[in-house]
Amino acid sequence: MEKGSSALFWLPANAWPLAGRTHVIPVCWVNPVDLSLATPPVPASALPAVRAAIRDGSLAWSRWANIQFTGWSTCPTTGDEKFVRIWIGPHTNNDLQVDGQTGSYGTNNLFPPSPLADRYSSSFRIWINGMSPLPSIAVVAIHEFGHILGFPHEFDRADRPLATSCPPGNGGATPGTANLTPYDNLSIMNMAYGGNPPFPNLPCGSSTLTESDITGLIRAYGYRCSGDTDCDGTPDYKDNCVYAANDNQADSNFDAERTLAKRDGYPSFY
Question: How many domains does the chain contain in total?
Answer without folding.
Answer: 2
